UniProtKB/TrEMBL annotation:
Domain HTH lacI-type: 5-60
Molecular function terms from GO: DNA-binding transcription factor activity; transcription cis-regulatory region binding
Segments forming domain HTH cro/C1-type: 6-50
Native source organism of the sequence: Chelatococcus asaccharovorans
DNA-binding among keywords: yes
Keywords, alphabetical: DNA-binding, Repressor, Transcription, Transcription regulation
Residues in coiled coil: none
Protein name per its UniProtKB record: LacI family transcriptional regulator
Length: 326
């Protein structure tokens, strides 16, 4: 439908009022003659008008609002998930309300309370953190889908990747490339996703003859993955053995690691190769030196919608694991 086609366009073509077109579009035809209905429908077809399901839902005051809570919209991955989910929900006739919790439990609970007061139809929790409000809602059986991080307490359908398998894939790559001193950089305040990536990485290295004690490990504090990477890199580069390959459990951690490497006069990837698990499309513009396990965040929206539909229809809810690409 052309962007400038609206009810006004249809009304002008049919020679009737906008309110008449609106009633007929919404199935209220008792007050219109057969000839008027025919003219309006012919005009709709002629101009290519298609009703907006979101607008229709709002006019009917249906509970078509879904709340999404995101831990950090500065993170391109989370912004992509939010955009993808909004598009999927909008196409199905829902309105999405977006809140940034900044990875804080108190803000998360404030937003959960506010969204609950708005009678939202469901909650999409992107990288949620443990909190009392979340635990209470989960215990009540609120329709809730967890994205990238699994439910902090209780159970709930999960949309994401097999993080342990992704970490193991990086370990296999390092071994197959003959890397002698692998390392891993991760946040001190981790999540289910970052912990599983590290565990999968270390477990596979151990399976292939590299016990965890031989792997250089560096963690960084704080919520900013840029700062986490910078601090983790200082610990890694200060270790006795110099790493020749580092797993960074997110793109932004890799950016922080490289910054510290350059300050130490190291060449990336010449002296030390960096591999992240994220794969933002921005990397080809700002980080061509970075190899990534690419996660299809753009496809998350449809999977989130499918999970919500399963909850709403009473179907068995299940985890939805998307394929990643290395």
């Amino acid at each position: 439908m052309p962007e400038d086609v609206s009810l006004t366009t249809v009304a002008a073509r049919a020679g009737v009022s906008i309110s008449t077109v609106s009633r007929i579009v919404n199935g209220e035809t008792r007050r219109a003659s057969a000839a008027t209905i025919a003219r309006v429908r012919d005009a709709i077809e002629a101009v290519g008008y298609r009703p907006n399901p979101v607008g229709r839902a709002l006019r009917r005051r249906q509970s078509q609002v879904v709340g999404m809570l995101v831990a950090n919209l500065d993170n391109p991955a989370m912004a992509t998930i939010a955009s993808s989910t909004e598009a999927a929900l909008r196409s199905a006739g829902y309105v999405m309300m977006l809140c940034d919790t900044h990875d804080r439990a108190d803000l998360q609970d404030d937003y959960l309370s506010a969204l609950r007061a708005q009678l939202v139809r469901g909650f999409v929790m992107v990288a949620s953190v443990p909190s009392k409000g979340l635990a209470d809602l989960s215990a009540e059986g609120a329709p809730m889908v967890f994205v990238t991080r699994r439910a902090p307490a209780g159970r709930g359908p999960f949309v994401g990747i097999d993080d342990r398998a992704a970490g193991a894939a990086v370990a296999d790559r390092f071994i197959d490339e003959g890397r002698r001193a692998p390392a891993v950089a991760f946040p001190q305040q981790g999540s289910s996703a970052t912990r599983d990536r590290v565990l999968g990485f270390l477990a596979r290295l151990a399976e292939r003859g590299r016990p965890a004690a031989s792997v250089i490990q560096g963690e960084g504090s704080g919520l900013s993955h840029l700062q986490v990477g910078y601090e983790a890199a200082e610990k890694i580069f200060s270790a006795g053995d110099k790493p020749d390959a580092i797993l960074c459990v997110s793109d932004q951690i890799a950016y922080g690691v490289r910054r510290r490497a350059l300050e130490r006069g190291l060449d990336v990837p010449g002296d030390c190769s960096l591999v992240s698990i994220d794969g933002s499309p921005l990397n080809k513009w700002v980080a061509p030196w970075l190899v990534s396990v690419e996660i299809p965040y753009i496809a998350y929206g449809q999977e989130v919608l499918a999970s919500l539909n399963a909850i709403w229809t009473g179907s068995a809810s299940m985890d939805r694991l998307l394929p990643y690409r290395f």
